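lol so apparently i was supposed to do this last week
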Amino acid sequence: MDLVVRNGTIYTPYGLVSASIGVEDGKIAWMGRAAPEGVRVLDVDGKLILPGMIDMHVHFRDPGSPDREDFETGTMSAAAGGVTTVAEMPNTLPPVTSAERLREKRRIVERKAYVDFALVAGAGSMSRDEIKPLAEEGAIAYKMFMISRFKELAVSDADMLDNLLLIAETGLPCLVHAENEGLVSRGVERARSQGRRDPLAHSEFRLPLAEAEATARAILLAEEASVHLHICHMTSSEALALLSWAKGRGVKVTAETSPCYLFLSTDDLERLGPYGKVDPPLRGPEHQRALWQALRKGLLDVVASDHAPYTREEKERGWIDIFDAPSGSVGVETTLPLMLGSVNKGLLSLERMVEAFSTNPARILGLYPRKGCISIGSDADLVVVDTKAEFEIRGENLHSKQRITPFEGFKGRGKPILTIVRGEVIWEDGEILGRPGYGKFLSPIRRRV
Ligand code: DOR
Ligand code: ZN
Ligand code: ZN
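anyway here it is w/ zinc ion bound
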């Protein structure tokens, strides 16, 4: 064996097992009690070993905005947060709306990645002829914005239905940012006309109604097209009710939320100012409770960070006028500790946590069982956790280029201490051991092009 991870409490599809893992050629080759010989032996002293986390919603800004983030810092931050695979979004510069652009982006970011990565294609108002070649080039999924913020990735209802019908033929899922553009811009205009520029105005005037309406519309269009719809960053009880309705009807729909909406609410906005500005906005505590319940029940399928960094200068503008700051927050490194802390507090079972942050993303993206589980033949992507150790989130310790986190000072029990990607230790207790270019480009195992 190339590597033996000895004495673990292993999270397997069949439950927790006290055993060792043998790795050969980057894959899990053996599991059992008696540890075989290995070139390298790592004794984890009974600690919990989870499958590597899969963050299916990150923005690493590469190429295009190196002041905000790049693939090196983004994937280092992932490694330090127990994330072994990321799916990266297409709103880079230029946006990923053709096979050629996907190829070029892959070329640029491949030599920088510390962890494995997949690229999401844009499906906006570009030529319909580009949709299928994007899948042939290895896109993991498509993404559409029902708001107009990212011009080339925004869709009208007609574009959306046309694109969904073509995406259905590729067998890939379509991710959507579901908010109603008209209602969102009406809110901003009304806030401005009332002289509101304070942090709370972003949430108060950007209504759950805008999210619910677009969610309903996306569901109906996806049902018509028989496509797998994945709704990003769900935040409100209204949207959850629609999700439940759609699943009950048998529509092929999955949904995600992010730690922002689970751990923060409008109560935090005054304190956080522009650093609490995300789209959709933070909601009231009643929505927060509904999200936790939906996650526990399995109605919400996925937790993803929506890691969306902006520079301090860009964000700071929002203290004077919240509408002048861009929306987005860092999060790829802090999601696992925050979720482990919640497991420790009894808010969520370990099983649901692993499902939402590893197994389900792998299934949705067509990477399962290569990723998302600890099983013979799977990639040896592992994260070792000290369930008793206390973590405290400190922006200054983050590996992202942006070190201001809305979770500053959050504490809990349950700390990732070691990250392994395909049998290589890439992060250990505060230290990056991997190298740029080690991370592999992933295309889906299952695809129908
Ligand atoms: O808050 C957000 N930031 N929401 C989005 O939909 C986009 C993202 C970004 O890329 O900045
Ligand atoms: Zn979005
Ligand atoms: Zn996003």
